[in-house]
Amino acid sequence: MLRRSLVSIALLAIVAVVVPTAPARGQTTAPDLRPPPAPREFRAAWVAAVGNIDWPSKPGLPTDQQQREMRAILDRAAELRLNAIIFQVRRSCDALYPSDLEPWSEFLTGTQGKQPSPMWDPLQTWIDEAHARGLELHAWFNPYRARSDKATAPNHASHISCPRW
Prior knowledge:
By secondary structure, the protein is an alpha/beta fold. It contains 4 helices and 3 strands; from the N terminus they run H-E-H-E-H-H-E. The chain has a domain at about 45-140: Transcription Regulator spoIIAA, CATH 3.30.750.
């Protein structure tokens, strides 16, 4: 009898360790707070255009100079072994890409709504040049700000803040 009791106790101990028990009514299990495994590091730099913080260095620069500045930023990112760029393409309901909805950014041309001359697509060029260096490009949109306190040009008639009636 004693031997049977010891075997029963041993089996119960094994079952208690191997079989998880359900939480008591009203209790939840502790959440697993470990982050999911990352497939690789995300090493990125932000490139801000509002107020010409990072790019272009000032509004209204010739296209070739804007492109040289862009390539210098991307070359430096590759040199630092970054793998991504987070590029600000929409700051104040304006755009650094051709858009039927938003006017061109004044931080690019100096005048909101004025397209670059010669015409080019800065966002597409950033994408192409980043990919040529093995960098991802993530577009950073600011969905909230209608006008930056760094803006100096008047809003273009197509800007969301201008009445359309």
